[in-house]
Structure formats: C-alpha cells, structure tokens
From TrEMBL:
Entries under SMART domains matching the protein: ZnF_TTF (SM00597)
Residues annotated as domain TTF-type: 180-267
Organism: Centaurea solstitialis (yellow star-thistle)
A single MF term (Gene Ontology): protein dimerization activity
UniProt entry keywords in alphabetical sequence: Membrane, Transmembrane, Transmembrane helix
Record keyword Transferase present: no
Protein's name according to its UniProt entry: TTF-type domain-containing protein
Membrane-traversing stretches: 12-29, 36-57, 579-597, 739-760
Amino acid sequence: MYFLYFSSGGGLWANVVSSNIAIIVVFFANVVSSNIAIIVVFLAMAIMIDLVSGATVSSHLKSDHNIPPNITLTSLQMKSTIPTTQNSRTHLLSLCSLGDSTRHGHQLCWGDMEKYLKRKAPSTSNNTIDINDLPWDPSERPKMIIYHPNQRDEIRRKYLVRWPCQPRSHEFPTKNIGTKPRRFVVSWFDEYQWLEYSVKVDRHIVSIEQKEKKGTDAFMTDGFNSWSKKDRLKLHEGEVNSIHRMSLKKCEDLLNQNQSIAAALHKQTELMKTEYHMRLNASVEVCRYLLENVLPFRGNDESESSLYKGLFLGTLKLIGRTNGDIGKVILQNAPKNNQLTSPKIQKDLVTCFAEEVLKFIMGELGNDVFALLVDESSDVSRKEQMAVVLRFVDKYGIVQERFIGVVHVMDTSALSLKVRGQGYDGASNMSGKFNGLKALILSENDRPFKYIVLHINFIVAVAKKHDGVRDFFDLLVLVVTVVNSSCKRKDMLRESHKDRIQEQIGNDEIETDKGLNQEISLVRAGDTRWNSHLKTIMSLIALFQDVINVLEYVEDDGDTGATRLQASGLLSYFKTFEFVFYMHLILTILGLTNSLSQALQRKDQGILEAVDLIRTTKAQLQILRENGFDGVLEKCYSFCDKHNVVKLDMAEGYVNTRNPRKRMNISNKHYYNYDIFNTVLDMQIREFGNRFCEISTDLLQNMAALNPRNSFSQFNKSSLLKLSRMYPCDVILMTKKEWFLNMNLTSIIILFVMIFAIVNGITDLARLMVESGKHISHPLVYRLLKLTLILPVATATVERCFSTMKLVKTDLHNRIADDFLNSALICAIEKEAHHNVNNEDVIDRFQKMKTRRGQI
C-alpha cells in the first residue's frame, strides 16, 4: 500500500525539466499522527503539469493509471478528515496496488473518493465567436482580452487585413469648439493612414494599440474628437520608439508569418517553401475552376479506399497526373499534416476568393454613390436568404449592378432592414404598411422615398385577384403537372404533336423552312422567371389538341381514381368558351407588356427610360380596354372553330356553368365584356398608376430635365434645382443665384446639344460625358446624372442570383453553411470580377488569415 500526499502548505517542490524527460515531483508532508516525514517520489513520463491553472491530467497518465477523463489537479484538493497543524495541511489520496505490481503496475483506486472529485466540464466553443460577425466600427470593438485566447491572433489578423475603418464618403458632423464649428477632415486619412473614424460616436479611435494592450484611454476607448487640435495626432504618433509605432510594427509582424515563433522554431528550407507554394497554388486553381463552373467541392466518401472522393480531390489528382512536378508535391506525396486539402482549407480558399471579388467591386465603386437592390427567397433547406446587389455608375459612366452577398435573415419586413432609404416592388411584406413606413423613412433621413418601378410578374399577381383568372392559372398549373408527371404521357404528347405537324405539312397547311416546326413541350410557369407565364400559355395554345388527347387517355386509363377525376375535370373546363376567353385575354395582356418585361431585365436600364416604357404600356392597356374586346372575341371564335369548342352567342343570356339554375339576368356580352374584360384591365391600369407616389412623381419630373432626347427638349433649370435639393447631402447646397452661376446651365446645355445630339437616353449621356471628359469640367451635372442613374428600376438581377443559388445549394448539397454559400455565390455570379482575381492575391490573403504550417 502506498500513500500520496498533496500538501497545500509550503512543502511542495517540483522540477519540470521537459516533456521528454522524466519529471520528478517530491512531496514533503507531515503526518501528525506519526510525526514522521514521509517522502513519496512519483515518476511520470512525458507529462506537463500546470499547478497554477489546474491543467487537465495528461492522456499519458490517464492511459497508464485509468484516471477518469477531465480530472484537474485542482480537483484533487479535497477537504481532509485528518487533523492538521497550521504549517502542514495535508490531503490524502490512496494509491493502491491492484494485483501483481510487476505485471499490472499501480492504479489509482477511486472507489468512494470519486464523489469528492470535481469533474471538468467538456470543452465547448460557446466562448468563441464567428470571425465574420466582428463589429467594424472602432467604438463597438470590445477589448481583445474578452476573446478566447485561441482566437485572438485570428481576430487581430481579420481586423488588420480589413484595416483601417475610413468612411471617406460619410457626412462628418460639425461641433462647436470655442466659437468656431469644427469637424473631422477627410484628408487626414491620407496624411495618417492608420487613422480610424467611428461614425457611431463621431470620434477618432486608435485600435492598433488596443490590439497590443497598450496606449491611453483617450485614444483607445474614449476616442479623440478635438478637431481643432490636429497636432495631437502627430504627437500621438510619436517618435520611432513610441508606443504607437511599436504597436504598428507588431501588427505588421503578425501578418508576416515568417517572423513568427513557430517559423523560427521550425526552419523551412527554400525547397520546402517552393513545394508548399506549388501545393497551395494547385489548390487555388482547383477552387477557381469549381467556383467558376458552380460545381460542388466535397464527396460523400473521401476515404482512401473511395473511388469517388469529390471534385476537389479528383480535380487535384488530375492536375497531378498531367503535371509531374505538381504531382510530386500534392496529395500522398505531401506531408500528412500539410496537404492543403481539408474541408477547412477549402472553405478558407473560397472565402479568400470571395473577399478578393468584393475588393474588386469596391474598387469599381470607390467612394461614389450607390443604391441597394434587396430581395429574399428560400433555399432548398427552407432558409430565408436575402440577396443584396449594388447599383452604381463606374468610372466609365456605365451603370453596373454587382452582387455582394446573401444573408440568412429571420425577418424580411422593411422595419428590420436598417438602410438610409428604401423602395419596394409591391411585395407582400409591404401590404398594409406603406403609409407608416414611408413616414418613418422620411423622418430618419431626407433621401427621396421611392417606390421601385415594378416586378413584371405583378401583372399576373394583380390579375389573380379576379376569381376567374385565379382559377384559370390554378388549372393551368394542374394541367402541366398532369401531362408532365410521367414519361409515357410526355411521349404521347410528343408523338401526337409530331403526327399532327406531319399531317399539316402534307396538307400544305403550314410552311416549312429552317428552324420552323420544332419540337415543343408544355412550359411550367415560375414566379421568379419573367415571361414564363406567357411561354406557358403560348405552348398550351400550340399543343392544345395534343393536350386534349393526353387528358382523354388519362381519363380512361389513369392509374388511380383521383388522377382520372383530375383529367375529367380538366377536359370539361378546357372545352368551355370561358376557358378560351380567359386564355386569349391573358395572352393579349402579357404579349402587350412583353417588351416592357424585356427592357426591365437590362442591368443598365435607366429610370427615365423605364418610366417612358411604363407610360407607353399603360396607354396601350387603356386603348385595349376601350377598343380591344372585339379583337379578342374574334380570336376566341377562330380558336373554337379550329378545336371544336362550342361558341357562345353574345346576345343570349349568360348561364353560370357552376350553378345553371341560378338566373343572372345579364347577357353573355355583358358578362365577358364588363365583368371579365374591363374588370381585369382596370385592375392592371390602376396598379400601374399606384406604382408612383406623389414624391416619386415629382422626383421623376425633375430628373426628366436631364433627358437628352429631342435635344434636351424637357430641360428646365428650376427642375434641376429642385432635384439637387432632394439630395441635400449628396449635392453641395448653394443659394439659387450661386447655383446657377456655378453650373452655368445654359452654356452647358448648348454644348451638350452640339456634342450629344444623337444620344437616346441618360445612360448614353453619362457614358459620353466620361469619354469626352465633360464629367470633370461639369461635376455637378454629372453628379445629378449619377444620382438619377442609380435609382433601381427592377429586381431582375437579384432574382437571377436566386437561380444561381439553386445550382449551388441543391437537394444533394443541402447542408452547405451560410458563409460558404455566400462566398460561393459571390464567385459564381460575379464571373468577370472572379476572373480578374490573381492567384498570388488569394495566396497572400490565405496566409494572413491564420497561422499556417507552410511558409512562402
């Protein structure tokens, strides 16, 4: 029997030489009962003991002596039941020998003693944070000491890579210092590149000393806002050996991993560095290829025995086979702990690509004005994703719309989206909130509140408010589902259409030429695909007789009673005149608005051109309402004659097919002309009118003064002055006389008429102004022009992003994390910017993100 005593008095002596050398711990204890000092020598191999922090007993000791996991040395300090003196407080723990000590060794006998031991809770990551959620404003950054020790260097690197926070386009507020108003000056950013400004508290805050735990509170936490004393900045910067310069040097050294302790302890030869660079560059190339082509990275089984390990490893293996030099340094030929193929490495590389793409986009934007286009949609895992697109005018005077990210949001209502100004496309989250929200936005900022022109599918949405139109679209979706639900039915539809085309060609009923009479199928309509409803109706008209044949087959030989009942109901509805009338009415409306739909999908579409198209479309709808009924009715009669559908006499009384016994006391003409035709068109015309509120109308009228069509026929000085006052923070405010003298508008317009006489719109005008250099000589005119061009016209670009999202996050890859989804989407959508990203920039960012095993 052996006894091991832990003394909490002064009788503990330890000498920790190395983890590879036996540690001799000698415990001196005083046993009161025997008054004899017992010295127990305990030998252990490769164990590091931290008596101060109570580090967990090493796994070596645990495996040798069966010590339960997660037991700390401080846990062994139990209350003793043995009397002790003041200088000798001992705690007893029995170390007994079980069996033959020469064969089994000694094990700690826990027994009833286990209940006195405090187990250490399993380590969790609750005290770690998401690096991507770090606050950017200097005043909101907490002290580095609150972060987990293992994350601090990574957090420092994250800030240093993005550093500094310099909102150059911010409108810096003024404050009275003494008798004069003072404020922060943007040029100080150029003079002191380390300078950071907090928009939230209107103060300059130095964060590099905060990262190094040095400096004074005046600059680190409280901030500096004595704008009249600029010399304080130079004084704070100090001499070569000042705290500020030393902290700045340490920050630079942190990003340079070649100067780190790990690099000094593990020297790498030039050959090792070259091989590491080749291996990393190969992984970067694979990431670039997969991101450009929207391909998945991971495989279901990436073990050594797997035949398919995913596209990342498979492509990397292909590169190794085709290039012998690279093949010698990658995969199995690379160090086991530095192959650069793990999922974390893949995510880091994708993040680096995305950040470089965003850097390219921010370079295009600069410090110029921009607008945000925001829309939401759910992904395959039923998460609500909000896509954000920037709309701005680049340095060539061309309107650009750039995707900058997708965010998982819990609430997409307008009140939860904190931006300076908001406009809407009539989505459901605006219903019932318009007036109050408009007042809220205008109370918080003086930007013009603008109602986004339209989402072209609102025509279908508005038409569905009519009961008959809603039933028509519901049954349209149902017939597409029934016909396309099996391969046999699709084959029947295809063969029926082929036989009918051949018969018509034989009877010389249709023309034959290259590209004519192609195979077609029923197109499924989609809420996010513009013109899809028009294509569905056109395909149904072209395949009407073939669809009838398939429905008759399903009615007779359907698999289930429910399927046969569906087919019977569809046949009954399709052979009615009411269905034919609804189909041709909706086809006429969608065909009339198709040109508007095509124009609104252009990224560079200007607001003024869009307004002209909307006014033209609205006028055409009004003409159709007044004079179009007879034309639609004639098309319906022709269709009925061709497909043996019973025609109705418009002079006869209307009979409701759903309730034929109920007398309506109206004629067929009254029902189809007034209750359907006029009602549906009135709803469309009214919706076009509601798309503009009063302030939007004034805004558009003032912007029309910049329209170069017909030699600036709509030019008006007062309108431009009103337009500038709508943007008080974006255009320098002057008195009316000073403004006219500064702009010299009359001479400018005469010059523009001479140079840009053939320009069709403000989009071309901005581009030509840049090409001719007039944007420099007339900056205020160009500023107003850009403010007009950045107003969003439609949300087509955002909806295209959701189409790409369905390719990235699929049913088979539905567990992609939000960060990886965001980064992959940025690279997949912004292909031009992604193509311009340099591999070396990605490698440099990758090395600075975290501590890497390899050096370059």
